[in-house]
Amino acid sequence: MSVTLENIEKIIERTKVSYKEAKEMLESCGGDVVEAIVQIEQQQAKSQSDDSKAKKAAFEAKKETLLLQAKFWGKQALKLLKKAMLIKVLWKKEDKVHLELPLLLVLIFAVFAMPFSVIVLVLPFFFGIKMQLKKNNGKVTDISDWIKEHTPNSDQNN
Length: 158
Prior knowledge:
4 strands, 13% strand, alpha+beta, Helicase, Ruva Protein, domain 3, 2 domains, membrane, 70% helix, UBA-like_sf, single chain
């Protein structure tokens, strides 16, 4: 068999390779069109398999990275939740504690019962009840005084 334009075109039509690749494969197969097509298809299948393996490896690497990030952020969230359970919110009047709750419960309540929680969190100020944060080391921060210090007074604006 010989290398003819007609044979090269048959290979190109079947395998969608370039003219140069079809001609080189036809020459290496001694002009046998069928053998050239088989060789090219085997190369294409191997190339697709290699691409598939590379994509799978990239996917596995991304998956592993996401799992590591999820573990990291999960640990950080757990630390934050533990810390929020150790900090207590106190409602006091004249050195008598009327209510003491973990900060985490107060925050959950504030988020899920928003209209009611605003009333519950603001109402004590009108009755002279102070809100305080008590950390596990015993340090107490008075929320009422902090809010008064950080809100603008009408006397200061005039």
